[in-house]
Design a protein that fits this description.
Number of helices: 5
Order of helices and strands: EEEEHHHEHEHE
Largest sheet: 5 strands, mixed
Structural class: alpha+beta
Radius of gyration: 15 Å
Bound molecules: magnesium ion
CATH class: Alpha Beta
Distance between the termini: 10 Å
Strand content: 25-35%
Helix content: 25-40%
Strand order of the largest sheet: 4-1-7-5-6
CATH architecture: 2-Layer Sandwich
Number of strands: 7
Length: 160
């Protein structure tokens, strides 16, 4: 079977007094994403990338945000659910790469922790997981510190 690529993207508004969770890592800050779950944009983009690569739709199809069962869920549960669905179909994750766009705080000191957490969730060595941290150069809502966005690409391969 040929390899499959998947792409995911997500954005959440940031508001005061919410925890800032990115890539499964809680980062000290005075605001965090608004969302039905914990609003982890990086894990949401990863979940969508995995689903897209496998031909399984998108995060909204699988984890309906109008369903109270998903309220306040930790986003790592979405990733592990989808990784299990991939395994049932004879697929596994071969590599992950991603970009997080956040004006502040700087995510550089947290990149390795995010890579390690994602690697653990998808069953990869950390050197097969990329996380880049960018700012939005003070442009638009992300640049004003009012939103966070992430983009993720994954490669799936068949289990031998
Ligand atoms: Mg989201």
């Amino acid at each position: 079977m040929s390899p499959r690529v998947g792409l995911g993207w997500d954005l959440h508004r940031l508001e005061a007094e919410r925890p800032l969770v990115v890539g499964g890592v809680t980062i000290p800050h005075d605001r965090g994403p608004v969302g039905h779950s914990d609003g982890d944009v990086l894990l949401h983009a990863l979940t969508d990338a995995l689903l897209g690569a496998a031909g399984l739709g998108d995060i909204g199809d699988r984890f309906d945000d109008r369903d109270p069962a998903h309220a306040g869920r930790a986003s790592h549960e979405f990733v592990t659910d989808v990784v299990a669905a991939l395994a049932e179909r004879g697929l596994r994750v071969a590599s992950v790469d991603s970009v997080v766009v956040l004006e502040r705080p700087r995510l550089g000191p947290h990149k390795l922790a995010m890579r390690a957490r994602i690697a653990e969730l998808v069953g990869l060595d950390v050197d097969r997981v990329g996380v880049k941290a960018k700012t939005h150069e003070r442009v638009d809502a992300i640049g004003a510190g009012d939103a966070i966005a992430a983009q993720c690409v994954v490669l799936l391969e068949a289990v031998d």
